[in-house]
């Protein structure tokens, strides 16, 4: 029996109020899609299969490099973070797994944490290691790098941390390790490019040796920050080279915010997948840099185009199943609301991508008809698929309008009473 934080009676009451209108909207959309020979129940069932992991650090209020303004009733430990994640899952029904960040959310007792998560109906997705900041009492420093540091003993410390994270993840039922490093340089000449990359390959290889046979190792690239001149794994090219050198189950992870503005990310997706090296995603959105804004809040068309590639790849390769995760920093919203809304935006992009007439698109491509090719994509993108999202949630036991239901539950107000503000609470960076 799953423990629920929101009353199931409340969800039913809230759904009851909206059910008639949903049926009408769903029926109207069903008839419209039928004209294109699309069965809406099939699409709804496909929408229900999409899962996106929640970042454990995402349920706390984030912060920028300038300041953090805490919200009320914030989770004070990993158990309270799981409570909040369970609310997101209960209402939205597409986020049953949590991606942990170690050491930020390192449990004293992994068995206890696993049991706590299971009681809430939650599991664990990819584990995230952290060698971009020094831990308490660490001795050696990552100030000048971790896996690529010039000194072997610093590299060994970073390797050992990653292996420790794998071991922890193994106990929790995770199947992947995500590695992102802040290593790089701030001045021309500070770092020898190829020697640093060579040290990375050597370190990554040692971590890969410790990877269980049913695990994936995901390499996350980032163009800049905290290093502002060069970053060792700065782009998908470096990431691909490193993944290829490291091993078959080492793949690239694409964080949407980790590219230069205007970069064609959907084409990067296609390239990596074509050569079996697309391993996962961190969904978010950005306007200027690695802003970690809510998914789909700035450029929903780009999110759709990414999913258009993913659906196309899946059509050719049914075993294709990358790790999907939200990676956002919530500075001005209630993180629970942002995560519910963002997961739905990812699902919306996926549903629209499923509706693309791929036969027609292929013919327009072959016949060099650019106008109709892009119009085919736009025809799917411009559809209002909200009734499919609502129906998928309701049929899975979630809320037709999850934000309204969450607000009606007064869960945050209850947290405010139960979780007095901790002045020593730490923020989460943008990663
Ligand atoms: Mn990320």
UniProtKB/TrEMBL annotation:
InterPro entries: L-rhamnose_isomerase, L_rhamnose_iso, Xyl_isomerase-like_sf. SUPFAM superfamilies: Xylose isomerase-like. Keywords: Isomerase, Manganese, Metal-binding. Its EC number is 5.3.1.14. Transmembrane segments: none annotated. It is an enzyme of class 5 (isomerase). One of its GO terms (molecular function) is L-rhamnose isomerase activity. PANTHER family: L-RHAMNOSE ISOMERASE. This is Putative sugar isomerase.
